[in-house]
Structures are given as structure tokens and as C-alpha cells.
């Protein structure tokens, strides 16, 4: 077994460290919101550092203690557990509602967003399902099974409501089915079926207003277009080199969600084009190295797992970039490793840990053979002990 891919680890650790710096920078000023909560400028930073510590524990466990055969074996149970957690958000006393959305469950000392775990669980399940011998790319029945599971999850997620997480799950499922070689006419039929559903969802008054403001945010710069306009101002103010760490003006309660969904805009303001490009390059490194790890895999499950995990991180980062610069409507998706949000950080750290395990070159057959070899050694030892005891 080889060594883990240090480039992936270095890129992820750099993003996490830079994220901690940006969380402090974007929340260190006592805004009216913080003043109402009666908290200090270190409130978000300390909570984020605590999450990072837990995240590194997850990273260590998944990269050094987790066996890929174990991940494959418990793919379906993990999917069921994530669904149960997803439903728990609707139970009073367990679920937490913020801003009209019920997406979190109460988990001391903070909250947890099950939809983040759903994405990881779905990637693992799809890797397991697509690598099964009985899965056929030319079978419509084989195609319908994962799509049906995805639809069930989508219905629950949209009830929360969380349109961003629903779209992310759909993109992930579609991408992995495409990579598996599923016939294009099946994927095309799924896309055609999804179009009226997406239109129906988009016609919801608050979503429709979000779309119209996305198309022309300057029409209502003090209304529904305020957040996107302020994001443009932040990115434009940074220029090439930025205004300097801690010198952002948009974080002074001008740009909403400056430490979560729109932290990329604050990076652009404080570090300029150079800082933005550095962040983009780090995510590009994870994508390229993750795909390279997948291409070295000798087994289907490992190939699909590495590809799915890489896409899970990369697609979310790409969507966050697109939202900040106004290419797509706001989705409510955090920037992986950087944004404030414990659920996303923990799941992505675990995903990187699994990628590192795959990069070592371990395959399922070697894991099984190692276990069988250990059992044989134990059996020989027991026989020897019985023989020795009877001889004495």
C-alpha cells in the first residue's frame, strides 16, 4: 500500500486555515446583529475553531482507520440513517427553524444540517450501486432505482425548504449516472421530466422574485437585489491586490451572509483578484488530483467513490463562485472548507479523508485478503496452542 496524496491534504488544510482567517476577519467587527446577541468579536471564530478540531478528527479517522470494504458494506445503512436524520428536522424540539427554513437538528453544542450528510451518503450509495455486477447501463430498471431514491430525498429536502441542497443532490446523481455510462436517452428523459418540476418550483413567489432580481439586481438595489449588488461592490472594490486583510467595508453589515454564503466576495474585497485566483486554484488542484486518484482505481466501487467525492466538493465550490459573481441565482450553499457552517465542514473533511484513503492504493480485494490472512494466522495460532496444550 502506498502513501496518501499529500497534495490533496495540503490543498484542503490550506483552505481550512484560510477559512478560519476569513471567518475571524468577516465577523470580528461588532455589528448590530452581534450586539443584539450580546457576544464578542470572537464568538463565531471560537465556534468555527471548535468545528475545525472536530473536522480534523474526522479527517484522521477516515484517512487512517476507515477501510473501503467497510464503507462499501454499510453504504445502504448510511443512506437510511441520513434519511432518518433528514426527517427528524420536522419533529418539534429536535428540528431548528431559522429564517423560515427548517433544515437543522439540535445537536450539542450546536446544530447539524442532515442534507450535507445526505450528499455524502448518496455518493457512497451510488458508488456501491453502480459497481454492482447486476447493474446494467442499458437497463431502464437499473436507471430508475437510484433516480427513485433521489426523488424521495428531494421531496423531503424541498419541504424544508432547501432548493440549493436539492439541486446539488440532483447534479451529483445525474453526473455519477452519466459517468457510469448510462444511456443518454435515459438521462435526457430525466431532464425533460425535471423541467416542468423546476418551473413549478421556480414560480413560487419568493423564488420567482429571487430569479427576477438575479436577472437585474440593479432594478431594486435596496430591495431583493441588495445582496447581489453588495457582492458586486465587494468584488469590485478589491481590484487586483485587495484592500487588505480586515479592511473590508462590506462586512460592516452591508453584505448579508458575509461569513457564510458570500464569504468569497469578502475574499475578493480583502485579497483582490490574486486572492480569488488562489482559492480557485486550490479547489482546481483538489478536483484534478481527485480525478487522478479515481483514474488509478482498479475497482468500480473505488473509482465511482473517488469521482463522486471529488465532484461533491468541486460542484459546490463552483456553484458558490457562480452565485457570488452573479452567474446563477442565490442558492444558500456555503463555500467548502471556508464558509462558517459546521455541517458542511465536517462532511467535506470526512470526504477528503476517504479520498486520502483511496489515494493510498488500497483496494477491496487487498482489504479482504488482509482480513483473511489475519484470520488464518489466528486459526494457526489456536491450533498450535491446542496442540501444545495436549502435548504437555
List low-pLDDT spans.
Answer: 367-380
Strand order of the largest sheet: 1-2-3
Overall morphology: globular
Structural class: mainly alpha
Number of H/I helices? 15
Question: What is the terminal separation in angstroms?
Answer: 42 Å
Task: List the topology elements.
Blueprint: H1 6-27, H2 32-37, H3 43-65, H4 68-73, H5 75-88, E1 95-98, E2 101-107, E3 110-112, H6 114-130, H7 140-159, H8 163-179, H9 184-202, H10 205-215, H11 226-238, H12 263-295, H13 300-324, H14 342-359, H15 364-391
Antiparallel strand pairs: 1-2, 2-3
Please explain how this structure is put together:
The protein folds into 2 domains: 72-342, no CATH class; 364-392. It is built from 15 helices and 3 strands. The chain has helices at 6-27, 32-37, 43-65, 68-73, 75-88, 114-130, 140-159, 163-179, 184-202, 205-215, 226-238, 263-295, 300-324, 342-359, 364-391, and strands at residues 95-98, 101-107, 110-112. It has a 3-stranded antiparallel sheet with strand order 1-2-3, with helices on one face. β1 (95-98) and β2 form a beta hairpin. α6 (114-130) packs antiparallel against α13 (300-324) and α13 packs antiparallel against α14. The longest helix is centred in the C-terminal third of the chain and has 33 residues, at 263-295.
Name some characteristics of this structure.
392 residues, mainly alpha, 2 domains, 15 helices, 3 strands, 4% strand
